[in-house]
Amino acid sequence: MAKIIDVKGRRVWDSRGRATVEAEVIVGRGTTPLASGRAIAPSGASTGSGEAKSIDAAKAVQSLNGRIRDALRALPVSDQETIDRRLIELDGTPDKGRLGANAMVAASLACAQADAASRKIPLWKKFAGERRVALPVPQIQIFGGGAHARGRVDLQDFMIVCIGAGSFAEALDWTAQVYAAAGARLAKRNALAGVADEGGYWPVFKSNEEALTELVGAISDARLEPGVDVAIALDVAATQLYRGGSYHLDLENRALSAGQLHAMLMRWIERYPIVSIEDPFAETDAAAMQAFTRDAGQKIQVVGDDFFVTQVEKLKIGINSGACNCVLLKPNQVGTVTETLQCWEAARAAGYRAIVSARSGESEDTSIVHLAVGWGVPQLKVGSFSRSERMAKWNEGLRIEEALGAKALPFPARKLFKP
Ligand code: PGA
Ligand code: ZN
Q1: Is residue 202 within 8 Å of residue 144, measured between CB atoms?
Q2: Quick one: how many helices (H) and strands (E) in the chain?
Q3: How far is CA 133 from CA 144, 158, 172, 180, 291, in A?
Q4: Is residue 149's pLDDT more than 90?
Q5: Atom from ligand 1 closest to the CA of residue 47
Q6: What residues are annotated to the active site?
Q7: Strand partners, 9
Q8: How far is the CA of 45 from the centre of ligand 1 (A)?
Q9: What separation in Å is there between the alpha carbon of 303 and the centre of ligand 2?
Q10: H or E, element range at 211
Q11: Is 324 helix (H, G, I), strand (E, B) or coil?
Q12: Residue 34, CA distances (Å) to 2, 3, 102, 127 in order
């Protein structure tokens, strides 16, 4: 059985050009190295207040090279639960602020990578074992806004879901067509201000609703049928809009009460082929989230990101009070692989859906794609369809789909989102 011989921390750079931390874990028998695994911590811009706390990258490197290294050495690398428990105990704080959630998540994922490498299996297989798996259905950003594009449009993500696609590869083919069509429409109108943090177009629109009409137009331009082949998913990231008890749409120069925002979103659901809305209300506005889930939850996915911050206790409160019906899973919001898995298991047991998600600050690391496949989480969100930190993950999905071949379970898009 391979044991952890060494842990190294390294300061590297993320997709926004900011310092982050990479962990490298070396495993072997006795003192003979056999294999190693690496992982890089991501970082958010629209972070929930209940997230595990990341620390300065240089300090996170110190954590890895010192206390984390000492604590993990000699542990069997296949025992993810013990590794993660050791990290949690060593940190000893409720918010992971002592070791740093960034140091912890890098270490936790790098151990998983090293275990897979030492057993010469892909990472997804470590989690799936002999279970058959499917590729997750992607939610892919076309327009970026909110905190990722200096508030140019207020909502953060205008995404597509290829609900009629028969495979992950086909979903990406269709996405390429829609992404190109959307860019061509913007360029023609001189409404293209660049790309936002996750690679989606940074548009010059007069209203948030214009993003929806443009998205439907782009799907049609791509010769796909809105609502049948391709549907829309939104991340309102409403915590970012919430000030003084109302929701501010700065682009439109107006502020909405929770009731008005509720009514606006319900109208949009009627008018546009929307299948999923993330964080429609602020993380502190539980009553609004419950009311919205009651009214919209039969028709669409209501996703909690900042609202649950991948914390199983918060998810359980949401399940008991009827807030949301889907949870976003971001490993760095909680700090370890095992705690992320616990969140997914609690969601599944309650009949909640789940989406594995990247952050707005990312890297070439593709571990989360393997988590989604290996755990059987049926959806994946890693940003848009440009910039290599995003494409690295989509392309990894293609490799996994190819490797699975006929052994893959059916791609779940049509089952999850019946038109
Ligand atoms: P973040 O945004 O990584 O900036 O928090 C991603 C999201 O809200 O889903
Ligand atoms: Zn979000």
Answers
A1: yes
A2: 15, 16
A3: 31, 28, 19, 31, 35
A4: no
A5: 5
A6: 198, 330
A7: 23
A8: 6
A9: 8
A10: helix 208-221
A11: coil
A12: 8, 9, 26, 21
Residue range 231-282, pLDDT digits in tens: 999 999 999 999 999 999 999 999 999 999 999 999 999 999 999 999 999 9
Amino acid at 327: V
Separation between Cα atoms, residue 25 and residue 5, nearest integer Å:
8
pTM: 0.98
Helix axes 337-349, 312-321, angle to 10 degrees: 10
What's the confidence (pLDDT) of residue 419?
A: 64
Residue whose token pair is 């954590």: 63
Q: What is the dihedral of CA 177, 181, 182, 186, to 10 degrees?
A: 160
Q: Tell me the ligand closest to 383's alpha carbon.
A: 1
Q: Closest Cα partner for 282 from 238, 317, 243?
A: 238
Tokens of 385: 């369809």
Q: What does the block give as tokens for 388?
A: 């290599």
Amino acid at 330: K
Instruction: Please tell me the number of the ligand nearest to residue 148's CA.
Output: 1
β-pairing verdict for 157-161 and 137-144: antiparallel
β-strands 246-249, 19-29 pairing: unpaired
pLDDT digit string (tens) for 292-335?
A: 999 999 999 999 999 999 999 999 999 999 999 999 999 999 99
Q: Which H or E element spans position 157?
A: strand 157-161
